[in-house]
Design a protein that fits this description.
With about 475 residues, the protein is of the alpha/beta class. About 30% of the residues lie in helices and about 20% in strands. It folds into two domains: about 140 residues, Golgi alpha-mannosidase II (Immunoglobulin-like), CATH 2.60.40.1180; about 280 residues, Alpha-Beta Barrel (TIM Barrel).
Amino acid sequence: MTGSLPGRAETCDNPARLSEMARPARTLAATAALSAAEEGVQVHEALPSDCFTDSLGVGTHLTYGDTPYAKQDMVRARLQELGFRHLRDGWGTGSEAASAFVEDDLAPLGIGITMVQDPRQNADPEALKDMVKEQLPTAIDAVEGRNEHDLAGGDWASETREWTRQVAEAYDGDAATKDIPILAPSLADTNTTAKYEALGDLSDWVDYGVAHDYPGNQWVMNESITDTVLKNNQITAGDVPVQVTETGYTNGSAGGGYPGTPEAQVAEQLPKLFLDHFRQGIARTFTYELLDEKDDGSFEGSFGLVNNDGSPKPAFGALSELVALTTDPGEGAGDVDGSLTYHLDGVDEDTRTLLLAQRDGSFVLAVWQQEPTWDGSTARTLAARQMTLTLDQAADVRVDDLDGDGEAVSETEDTTEVLFRVQDGVSVLTITPPSVGSSTDYSAQGEGSLTSAGSSPPMPPSAASLRAARLANRDVELE
């Protein structure tokens, strides 16, 4: 089982809805799980499965000619195997070759790109906009503001603010680019609220907030990190959704501020990070980065999912398998609206879950422990938790463990109870009711409890309509 790219399929153009649904559905905190034990099975809301897949992104450096990124055939092949649909990069106006690779080779595979717009690229916003318009007309996903300029010191906040305004006016004022989403500038220091206050309200000019929230020496993504991200972005971006455009783990330690994480433990933690971000309403997450730029054990050169020689690391296989289990592109992919009635026994305060609904009426339930498996010096083996999934109606249940081999741990037909183990990584259960395949109803609604829609949150405006409202408020005149 490997990742797959369906081409430029229907995307989930409603991150506001997903964010609104996900935040209240921080499923299975211990108190809720334990209190439910006396009551038996309960209804759990699901999010659209393909929208999770569509939230996955990876950073690249396609113009770094002295690194493995110069091997375009290998890069293309690895991206196809991985199954991610979104890249983040930036090269100003200076590389028609990189643009052609993305537009002509990757976009037809269903891969889009978010382009960083930064004055260090030796071009003004108008020139950067024209490059995107002319060289990346079908591949462009979004553009992002200045990158970590808070590291420069001095008058960084006013400089970043002015650049953000200029980028927005360049893109908003051109009929060919006015619908390209604009992401806020990133800060290197995601934790310091005073920096966001210094930057101020940018909501007239941006469609998404942005964060770089590396777990660092906490070793695991958790609510403390994500809550800080969301709180600080309220200051600069208001109520719009947030994208995390850099995060992840390095395997190298030399020259770094904290020890790198071994490859085996990154394979356990990185899927948790992506799942946890989506669970908490992050619209898209980009891990940094696709390839190791160096083969020297350096901190900065060892963030890749792929080794410097082009061979995949264990995290690559885990993420490719996660994509294969959750991808569900096509008509109605962003509108699947289902719920599953079940009870999960064996959880504790560190158990987290994410429930996803697919267009055919099946469900994907990811279960993991929000605990680190590395402490900076020693790998930690978590206590194995034996869990029992109880359904109110019989279904076929497959259990996978994201070890990268694509093989199921177990498959049980026509059952209301499944025993499985959760330990260091993520366990993924695919739950298929008997009715699956008998209907083309993509809403996952019906009389049975397994596919009952339940009461879903009201549908907020789509990203496109939010952007249209922002432009209308600014009374933008188009060229």
